[in-house]
Amino acid sequence: MKSEPDAYSIEDLRRDRTEVWDGVRNYQARNFIASMAIGDKAFFYHSNTKPPGIVGLMEVVEINVVDPTQFDRESKYYDPKSLREKPRWHTVTVGYLETFKSVISLDELRKTFSPEELWVVRQGNRLSVMPVDDMVAEKLLHKIQAA
């Protein structure tokens, strides 16, 4: 799950302990969120920073959460077609697990994984939420423990 650190960082999540993962406005990313279950782990990826990369780990603590930003006229995520009786955008609440000692940079991810293995290394990928195969996740966690 990606976030720009100046918008919301792993340190913000560490401070807050839990947070609604709001503002996702891509249907494919929304579908990935809808498939999440309580207890699922997620890598926290800092995008639009130097270097971009995986910085920590979080856990899904609540599912099927109505994204409140869709109703906020002041929010850049406001959706005028969404109705309170029938919201278009649902999300999850995530809980902080850990901040990694060092960033697993996008360059390092590209050297380690193919685009078929890890979507974040695909050229032109703009999704803020994407699945990670269990075998890839294990390899990433092993890399983190070895660091």
Written account of the structure:
By secondary structure, this protein is an alpha+beta fold. Helix content is 24%, strand content 28%. It has 4 helices and 5 strands. The protein has helices at residues 10-16, 27-34, 106-112, 134-146; strands at residues 2-3, 18-20, 41-46, 53-66, 90-105. A 5-stranded mixed β-sheet has the order 1-3-4-5-2. A hairpin with a 6-residue loop joins strand 3 (41-46) and strand 4. The two termini are 22 Å apart. The mean pLDDT is 96.
Q: What is the gyration radius calculated from CA atoms?
A: 15 Å
Number of strands: 5
Whole-number mean pLDDT: 96
Q: Helix/strand/pairing class, anyone?
A: alpha+beta
List low-pLDDT spans. Answer: none
Order of helices and strands: EHEHEEEHH
Total number of helices = 4
Strand order of the largest sheet: 1-3-4-5-2
Kindly state the percentage of residues in helix. Answer: 10-25%
Task: State the major sheet.
Answer: 5 strands, mixed
Q: Note the gap between the termini.
A: 22 Å
- Rough outline: globular
Q: Indicate the proportion of strand residues.
A: 25-35%
Descriptors for this entry?
alpha+beta, 5-stranded mixed beta sheet, 147 residues, globular
Briefly say what this structure is.
With 147 residues, the chain is α+β, with helices and mostly antiparallel strands.
Give the helix/strand layout.
Blueprint (H helix, E strand, L loop, with lengths): L1 E2 L6 H7 L1 E3 L6 H8 L6 E6 L6 E14 L23 E16 H7 L21 H13 L1
Parallel strand pairs: 1-3
Antiparallel strand pairs: 2-5, 3-4, 4-5
